[in-house]
Design brief:
2 domains; Tyrosyl-Transfer RNA Synthetase; Rossmann fold; globular; binds tryptophan; two-stranded parallel sheet; 14 helices; binds adenosine-5'-diphosphate; mainly alpha; 345 residues; 3-stranded parallel sheet
Length: 345
């Protein structure tokens, strides 16, 4: 059949499914924006893909115990993505806990997953190693089953929507490998090809954004610049970026310079060149920080306004998530019903 005569749905079926989840465990920062959000939004614009983006609130349960804070983070993430241009009519945007099919698939997959596979998962192993280092008699001390089962739940997220490609950071590669193993295991046991075996998509060229202290910007180091901090706070934080003790008139290197590398992500090529020249001719760190602040502030202000507006009108976020839930459940129900049938349930 001529491709142009195919229905929208049929064309959609030929597209690759791209899926990724964001754990609501903190407020989005500049590192998240440059390293994860921006590339994912770019990909969602590509017509070759059907994109699924979701808020992994079940995953946050394993390490965040404050229900109010969890709610705050869920809304923060949703508002952040929507403010930055996620189009919920094009992308299926939903909250993991709104899709009960995921929890059911999680159990079915748990039952085909070798325990040894999870014993070898990095996050669990790191927790055991830490207990050993601290000389604890019980190596599983303080480790909950959520942490242990984390990779199975993540496999359920991915396999639930027949995802082909999963864009993730390098730390998540093993989880995708586990999801592949689990999909193959299910397909083998039940002599089927019901579950799509996913592939990790690693953004190699995304550099690591440095934080206020020069280490990787990360919530765990408390060195972040929140993406939508109000202007005054943004300026205050930028002024806190650690620099060396070079005098203003000394020529400065742009290599490994937190100020310069952040600037590169917001400025135009000619602005970047102009700042590079200023570095070569000598620029005071205070002035460089002021230039960086003005740039980031001017780029982010329109998005921040949208973000603030959404955070003040959460029913709009709820409506988007509800629409996403409906779309996502339709797909999830199809896959789950095939899985149940194959498993004889
Ligand atoms: P954090 O380290 O603050 O807890 P997460 O682990 O929740 O951040 O990361 C969420 C996403 O943001 C991941 O895809 C990760 O690769 C990306 N990311 C986080 N910090 C940075 C950074 N400093 N530079 C580039 N990307 C980052
Ligand atoms: N574990 C991922 C992280 O911490 C978040 C996540 C949960 C995810 N489920 C997923 C990512 C499924 C991709 C696909 O970053």
């Amino acid at each position: 059949m001529d491709a142009s005569k195919k229905t929208h749905n049929e064309q959609d079926k030929q597209k690759k499914v791209v899926l990724t989840g964001i754990t609501p465990s903190g407020i989005a920062h500049l590192g998240n924006y440059i390293g994860a959000i921006k590339p994912a939004l770019e990909m969602a614009k590509n017509d070759a893909y059907n994109a699924y983006f979701f808020i992994a609130d079940y995953h946050s349960l394993i390490k965040l115990w404050d229900p109010k804070l969890r709610q705050e983070y869920i809304y923060d993430i949703a508002a952040t993505w929507l403010a930055l241009g996620l189009d919920p009519t094009k992308v299926v945007f939903y909250r993991q806990s709104d899709i009960p099919e995921i929890a059911e698939l999680n159990w079915i997959l748990t039952s085909v997953t070798a325990k040894g596979l999870l014993n070898r998962a990095h996050a669990y192993k790191a927790a055991v190693d830490q207990n050993e280092l601290e000389g604890k008699a019980d190596l599983d001390s303080g480790i909950n089953m959520g942490l242990f089962n984390y990779p199975v739940l993540m496999a359920a997220d991915i396999l639930m929507f027949n995802a082909d490609l999963v864009p993730v950071g390098k730390d998540q590669i093993q989880h995708i490998e586990i999801a592949r193993d689990i999909a193959n295991r299910f397909n083998h046991i039940y002599k089927t090809n019901t579950l799509t075996v996913p592939t990790a998509m690693i953004e190699e060229k995304t550099q690591t954004i440095l934080g206020l202290d020069g280490r990787k910007m990360s919530k765990s180091y408390g060195n972040t610049i929140p993406l939508f901090a109000p202007s005054k706070k943004l300026r205050k934080l930028i002024m806190k970026i650690v620099t060396n003790s070079q005098l203003p008139e000394e020529p400065k290197s742009t290599e490994n310079c937190t100020i310069f590398s952040l600037y590169e992500h917001f400025a135009t090529p000619s602005e970047i060149n102009a700042l590079k020249e200023r570095y070569q001719n000598g620029i005071g760190w205070g002035e460089a920080k002021q230039i960086l602040f003005e740039k980031i502030d001017s780029v982010l202000t329109p998005f921040r306004e949208k973000y603030d507006d959404l955070m003040a009108n959460r029913h709009i976020i709820d409506e988007h998530l509800k629409a996403g839930q409906q779309k996502a459940r339709l797909e999830a129900q199809k896959v789950l019903s095939a899985v149940r049938k194959k498993a004889g349930i």
